[in-house]
Amino acid sequence: MTTLQLTAFSNLLNTTSDVCGTNLVILRAVEKTVDNLCKVQRSFESLSQLWSEIIPRRGELGNNPIDPEDVIVARFHEVELNVQQDIDVAKAKRRSAFADSELNGVHEESVVSEYDRTVSAMEEFLYVLNETRIAITEHDADCDESVNGPFDNIDDLMASLNDDS
Questions:
Q1: What is the residue-wise DSSP string for 56-75?
Q2: What are phi and psi of 80, to 5 degrees?
Q3: What are the DSSP calls for 89-133, one per residue?
Q4: Tens digits of per-residue pLDDT, 69-124?
């Protein structure tokens, strides 16, 4: 081999090594991202399962209010807002992964599909949390003895609500 051929071969090896190194970095990043997204999915799925079991059990409380001061309901609303922000961030990251020129084929598909599954798990939790909040509010309203009903018309209802006695 001539010096020119050896130099060309050396350059080829260096380029191949750089490409392989870059591919390994991307593979590690994809694997880490997918693993983290799977953990997030499992967390939200567990929370959804936990909270969905509460809704049918509220009848066991009888006429006892769950949240008479609306502290829990207010906290649920805060959590809902935070989860919605997390969903928005996950959707933005999904769009970025889809548009990333370094991700292609299987890598892009795995990251994008994990973001889709994560967003679905978050949205399911948001739904369950909202349903739980509504169930608590309805239960407590049913337990509230300060409103005497049923009412024949809206005027009687409004008068009852405005009555300070």
A1: HHGGGGTT--S-TTSHHHHH
A2: -60, -45
A3: HHHHHHHHHHH-TT--THHHHHHHHHHHHHHHHHHHHHHHHHHHH
A4: 989 999 999 999 999 999 999 999 999 988 887 777 776 788 899 999 999 999 99
Long-range Cβ contacts of 35-40 (<8 Å, 24+ apart): 37/114, 37/115, 37/117, 37/118, 38/114, 40/118, 40/121, 40/122
Q: What's the rounded Cα separation, in Å, for the pair 86 and 42?
A: 15
- State the chain's maximal CA–CA distance in angstroms: 105
Q: How many CB atoms lie within 10 A of CB 163?
A: 10
Identify the three-state secondary structure at position 148.
Answer: coil
Distance, CA of 119 to CA of 113 (rounded, Å): 10
